[in-house]
Amino acid sequence: MTERSGLVLIAERGCGLAQGLKPWAAEQGHLCKAVDNIKDVLMTLQTEKVNVLVMDAGLPEAMGYEAISIIKGLHRKLPIIVTAEENNPEQESRIRQQGIFYYHVKSFGLDELILAISNAMMRSSH
């Protein structure tokens, strides 16, 4: 059972997450697009139909969670998954208050993130 194909936008420094997710995305019929700054996130959101945004809390100019309110202002229903290097309860609490879909600590592994993306895809296709 696969959802209809969609676009997963991955915003991170480097391409580690994007490389890890591409095989799964291809298998599911989804596309992965990787960007490394908030400006490219915003430009992509204006020009393409993004189904799920996976964003690194540590993006330099993202200021972690401040960018979320801007993105939510443009695309209220876009599921946003925020990834973080380590478990930081204060940061997690501030980010969750922005109404994100899921908060993922990278050390938990890709399986949990893939499950969250799958769930977000199903939600965004309804």
> What is the fold-level CATH name, i.e. the topology?
Rossmann fold
- Strand fraction equals 15-25%
Q: What is the count of DSSP helices, taking H or I runs of 4+ residues? A: 5
CATH class: Alpha Beta
Q: Describe the strand arrangement of the main beta sheet, using strand numbers.
A: 2-1-3-4-5
Instruction: Characterize the quaternary organization of these chains.
Output: single chain
Instruction: Please tell me the CATH architecture by its name.
Output: 3-Layer(aba) Sandwich
Strand-pairing-aware structural class: alpha/beta
Helical fraction: 40-55%
Give the full name of the CATH homologous superfamily: Response regulator
**How would you state the average pLDDT, rounded?**
88
Number of strands: 5
Shape: globular
What would a concise description of this structure say?
The chain has 126 residues and is an alpha/beta fold. It contains five helices and five strands.
Write the layout of secondary structure elements.
Blueprint: E1 7-11, H1 16-28, E2 31-35, H2 38-47, E3 52-56, H3 66-74, E4 80-84, H4 89-96, E5 102-105, H5 110-124
Parallel strand pairs: 1-2, 1-3, 3-4, 4-5
What do these coordinates show?
This protein is 44% helix and 19% strand. It has a single domain, classed as Rossmann fold, CATH 3.40.50. The longest helix has 15 residues, at 110-124. Strands 2-1-3-4-5 form a 5-stranded parallel sheet, sandwiched between helices. It has 126 residues and is α/β, with parallel strands linked by helices.
